[in-house]
Amino acid sequence: KGTLFSPFLTSLLGSRDVTSGLFQASQGSSMADTGVVESLLGLVEKADGGVDSLEAAAGLGVDHQLLVGAVKSLQALGDLISAELRSSKHWELSGEGTEIAEQGSHEARVFGSIPPQGLTQSDLMKLSFGKIGFSKAMSSKWIRVDKAHEGGPRVFRTVRIKFTWTVITAFSENRSSTRVLPAFRTVKSYWITKGSSFSTTITKQETELTPEMIASGSWKEKKFKPYNFQAMGVAPDCGHMHPLMKVRTQFRQIFLEMGFTEMPTNNFIESSFWNFDSLFQPQQHPARDQHDTFFLSDPALAHDFPQDYLERVKKVHSEGGYGSQGYKYAWKVEEAQKNILRTHTTAVSARMLYKLAQQKFTPVKYFSIDRVFRNETLDATHLAEFHQIEGVVADRGLTLGDLMGILHAFFTKLGITKLRFKPAYNPYTEPSMEVFSYHEGLKKWVEVGNSGVFRPEMLLPMGLPEDVSVIAWGLSLERPTMIKYGINNIRELVGHKVNLQMVYDSPVCRLES
Amino acid sequence: MPTVGVKRDLLFTALGRTYTDEEFDELCFEYGLELDEITSEKEIISREQGGSKASGASDVILYKIDVPANRYDLLCLEGLVRGLQVFMNKMEAPRYRRVRPVSGEPQRLVITKETAAVRPHAVAAVLRNITFTQERYDSFIELQDKLHQNVCRKRSLVAIGTHDLDTISGPFTYTAKPPGEISFKPLNQTKEYTATQLMSLYKTDSHLKHFLHIIEDKPVYPVIYDSNGVVLSMPPIINGDHSKISLETKNVFIECTATDVTKAKIVLDMMVTMFSEYCAQPFTVEEAEVVYPDGKTCKYPELAYRKEKLSSEFINRKVGINESTETLARLLTKMCLRSEVTGAGDEIEVEIPPTRSDVIHACDIMEDAAMAFGFNNIPYTTPLTYTVAHQLPVNKLTELLRQELAAAGFTEALTFALCSKEDIADKLGKKISETRAVHIANPKTAEFQVARTTLLPGLLKTVAANRKMPLPLKLFEISDVVLKDETKDVGARNSRRFCAVYYNKSPGFEVIHGLLDRTMQLLEEKSARGDGYHIQAAEGKKGGGGGWHFRACRNSLNR
To answer: What keywords would UniProt list here (chain A) (predicted)?
Structure first.
């Protein structure tokens, strides 16, 4: 540990900001002083091996930072010079240490501040070094306090000391472990030598290529200022697509690539009949509760149901049929008539399948991505409205294995290849499967969707042939979007509280991995 | 999906082995259950009410298991263990039997015609010589609660009452009386109340207040008496204190009153199949007779076993596997569906036990075969369904326009389809009756009173929520609004709209005007009066629309 007043240490105090100086210099070479540049070139020309930037700065009497700026600007001109970054380590004082080095220890300054007639303690304490210096000088018995003095406690010198460097050094060393600890610092400098195209004269650099230069051919002789690749470019003036809609576009694309036709889901208002009854969802099902579904007061009821189909639906619910026991309850048309905000797009699938059943059967593949509504409790991941993605395939003789195969193809397009299926329950599909995928980040299986084969009690009353199976799956659009864009609160994504900066910054949506 | 909490160690004892959490989770997954949470009473209390309340609570480990909503037979420890043991071939599914009492006549429950006005159905049964322990008793109470919450639809469809048979004497009468005429000491109370008093007493009861509405407005309330006039229960609200069961109870009389008799039978079957395990003659249930107002008599519990015949070809074809008839019969038996190969071709005869009320069609049996086979053992196949894809024209146009609008420098917003009446009317200086809006009957908050009739409020609210952003804000949205339309079966239709907003310190009408012109150019519409498009000032509005836009902005920004 060096003594605080070593000349070696004090000589370093001026170069403490060398490191940050390097960074400042790199921001732009135009900052460099042309005088310094020329002087430096002169030094390099005369030097035999090379020049150290620290020595050069000292020699030229300029700040080292300024010299580094000159080095940078010379480097930018090509091979005029070559500069090798060097670093060396030195002990250096902390801020407080520097103050002590320059002005003496706190206690010495306290001592020095007290005139022969003494000083009030409150005045002493107002001095920047007062508090520490007072206690140190007191414990060293250099000073005393007369508490009973007129006008408040007053401080007096007790000894006469002729200060010498040695005394201060000794006192200061005792405390150096706590506050005045010298730090080991890295000092950076350049070793500058002549480059392959060394010259002491500098040609002015052009910043822009102009039409005149091209016309006259003068561009061939000009030296051009290099581009600054460190800075950001100018942001283009542009509009942005909403991230959820970007993901929707990709899902649409995937379905279209797989040959799925888009269903007309532009009907948010649906009757309970198409939303529930046609799907063989019993009228006492909890999903039909006020707590889960938005009912309409105006227009409250739907009309114009296909009458014979409605009778078949009523029968399969209340008595069974088509090989089913039914639910055996009193099915009421009044319940079916109630208008709601649709709780799933499967209501539209039901309408489409009913329509399909009214013609000579041809296989179909349908999809939709649209809003659905739930009267549920809102939190960071649930809103009263969200987008449902749905795929439906109707064909003769489809199997559960086919459903898995299609799901595999679909999820592979999303970059999800590892799937697992869990048996589940859904009133209108049997079998029903929850789709899980292995999440590499979370190291566990997470649910990514729901799927199943529509029940015969749903399809046969519509009039579809008995050998036709309809397989379907669904998932929400918001969840994969939130995962994709790393959004935790759904309100930042959907609705007016959206974070527009997030919309501006969101990258393109590429789902395939 | 109902969640059942079972003590882990109790579960493992019953299963005859221990599992790691991962192993048990895996078993659940295969069986269509989900190990939702591993916790303890202490943890639950400390999470819900704070750590201080939890001191002294049990830290026995609980498994919270999600059970499919139609599997009422898995809503208690007894049922879960039975299902899993049979699934793992560790036991055969028990056979549940209805038996006559060893001596004397069966218990009798007589329904009077007055019940028709409020809760017309009732079923009953007796669990004879049952042995309760604390755990069994707790599970018995818990199952009633789970059934009440699920299949009973919060007691509105079915309500269960369980009684110590040795404290009462039949025949029992299920009748309905005006509330003032019903008086008894209810469960865990010290004095008698009339039904009218009870209804006001329970108004503040955190548990019972949810069931009051079921009978509150009826002229008569349902009530069950024994032959001495002792009140067994006033369904679906509360039982009498007199006949309450305890750990010492040996004989349990179970009654279920209902508005849906099918559900009542299912619920009674569940109660007795689950807990007859602890009777002196396990899995036997003593019958009770129910006499209807018309003199007809029925015996309960039904405990009906139904047989279905189906071919192994049907299962293989629907699932996409190729297993022998014998294998499929064995797989189904693992699912508590005892199955036999009949020998007639590839026919399998499946017996559906009273516990499996969820099996109502051959497709349910097919699913069970697939589950027992293992969903994840089914090979993936690709159907050869050939189709040509079509986009919905309005969506195709929307997609194309969105791209162009973003290219024109506008940013896409995505706002809610539901909003308050104020948003689409008052704040835009309109009357709600002029809007053709559809109204929601049961909104939980004012944010969901109506479906929007215009996209503008959503965009203005987006601006309001993003005032910290650098100006200008240029926003657009293309989405649906909803309008009443009597020509539609539901009386309303969606309408696709395009709306854009320019928000800056200076009005800049020409910016939004320019976007409109650009849009029309993209849609190949010329700017011309007559044959093309033109803009005109709305009547009674200042400055060609600027007037009301300004007011709307202020309203929106002041939120």
So the answer is: Aminoacyl-tRNA synthetase, ATP-binding, Cytoplasm, Ligase, Magnesium, Metal-binding, Nucleotide-binding, Protein biosynthesis
